[in-house]
Amino acid sequence: MFCTNTLVIFSLVLVLFLSFGGSNASSEDELASTISSTNTTHDLESTTYEYGNNLEIIFNNADISKKKAKSSLIRNDIIWYDNKGKSLKANRCGSISKTKINGLWYMVGSESSPVWNDGGDTYLYKSETLGSSSWQIVRKIVEFNQNQTSSSCNINQRYDDPNTVIVHCRKQMFISHNGVEGDYSRHLLNIKSNEEGRGRLKVGGSSMFRENDDLYLVTSRLQKKWIDGKRPRWQYIYKLNSTWTGVEKDNPAIVSWLWDTFEAPYIAKKDDWYYLFASRTQSWKQSTTWYRRARSLELLATAIDSEVVMHPANTPAIQSMGSQFCFLQQFDDGKWLFGGRRHPAESPENFAREYGKYVMAPATFIDGTPHVYWKYYFDWTTYDYTNPDFDTHNHFGIGHKEVPCEDSTEAIWLKKANRFRFCKWASKKNTWNRCRKHRELHVKCPIACKVFGCGT
């Protein structure tokens, strides 16, 4: 069986290799063009693309690697690999620098460890073109130990010193004084834990908004104390000091308000309007994306909540293109991209690994309303943002999960390596420890299904 499978795979690879010109194999863009001109299904398209990735490994063709590094083609519903052939480790809202740094875009984010609650190491990648296959690994910025976490990371090059680069991850900062690819040291932002009348507040999902030389921390803060069975969630916008290493004196938030069912806030500015985007709180599940807009940051507190328009439209099965919102960012004049994230490591019952962690889709504004358009693949530099088109969803949604979770305290069904795995504990004794040791499936005790009797 092994020999037969190997022969079939080699034959397919050889045919593809020869059909795209032998040693001058096609670039990813040419491959996409060939695929789109056929009547293949999306499953076959994904399979062909994976073999296309393997061509570089099998034939060690430097020309292919160079072309892929220059590709501006963005592909969805696949795993994104770096130049070393490893999947990108910057989910948990892997954000991309708002502007190029030394001529390159940098993506920074954290990756869950095999035991999800041991924290997430933070990685840095770079790209000249933003293409899905163009990302090159720079380095691991920090390696965390147990009970340390890092997520919602953002990277900014200081306006007054190009050698100083700061990565903000919620309350944590990692500062390099010898360039974006230099050595980073760890620091903490001086944000109050206690707020008058609100008690102790956690610093949750966060992002940075830059306007000229000013940098703002935009963060969701969850009240630690339960009140009548609830924990209120507040939205805060802080202005950082001139060195971007702390908030303004005495911790004044320029504005804050109760925003109870929203998280992962992100601010962008267009045509003198400030837009605040956020995701609905849905634990690890996909969720709808919402926004507010106002003429100032302070006025966002009283603006109306509206839903970002998706094409195709949101359904109960597919929300925000089967992802959680991460960013809506302008990368060139009039060229906006929506970024979403998926969590196959943290929540395999909701996200199938083979469809990847990242979603990027073209976006535009129509009469002040943001619209996002689903594309299985597109060149973001040539896409027509003034006359946008979109693909229908051929997938079945809900993060592309393939096996529903049983609503049981005893069992969960998951699909792994093309076969079903049934996990069942004989008793509820020490269920939390059992969950943590269940590393082969990387399962966090799923809250929705109350599996294993923990995680409620």
Which word captures the global form? globular
C-alpha Rg (nearest Å)? 22 Å
Q: What's the domain count?
A: 3
Low-confidence stretches: 1-62, 402-456
The major pleated sheet works out as: 5 strands, antiparallel
CATH class assignment of the largest domain: Mainly Beta
Give the CATH topology of the largest domain. Tachylectin-2, Chain A
Strands ordered across the widest β-sheet: 10-11-12-13-14
In round numbers, the mean pLDDT is 76
- The CATH superfamily of the largest domain is known as Glycosyl hydrolase domain, family 43
- Beta content comes to 25-35%
Number of β-strand runs: 26
**What is the architecture of the largest domain at the second tier of CATH?**
5 Propeller
State the separation between the terminal residues, measured CA to CA. 45 Å
The helicity comes to: 10-25%
Number of helices: 5
Briefly note the structural class of the backbone.
Answer: mainly beta
Overview of the molecule:
There is one protein chain. The protein is mainly beta and 456 residues long. The chain has 3 domains: 2-69, no CATH class; 95-400, Tachylectin-2, Chain A (5 Propeller); 411-453, no CATH class. It has helices spanning 2-19, 28-36, 42-59, 62-69, 431-437; strands spanning 73-75, 95-96, 105-112, 120-127, 136-142, 153-157, 165-169, 172-176, 184-188, 194-195, 199-211, 214-223, 233-239, 253-258, 262-270, 273-280, 289-294, 306-307, 309-311, 324-332, 335-341, 358-366, 369-373, 377-379, 411-416, 419-424. A 5-stranded antiparallel beta sheet has the order 10-11-12-13-14, with no helix packed on it. Strand 20 (324-332) and strand 21 form a beta hairpin. The longest helix is centred in the N-terminal third of the chain and has 18 residues, at 2-19. The model is unreliable at 1-62 and 402-456 (pLDDT under 50).
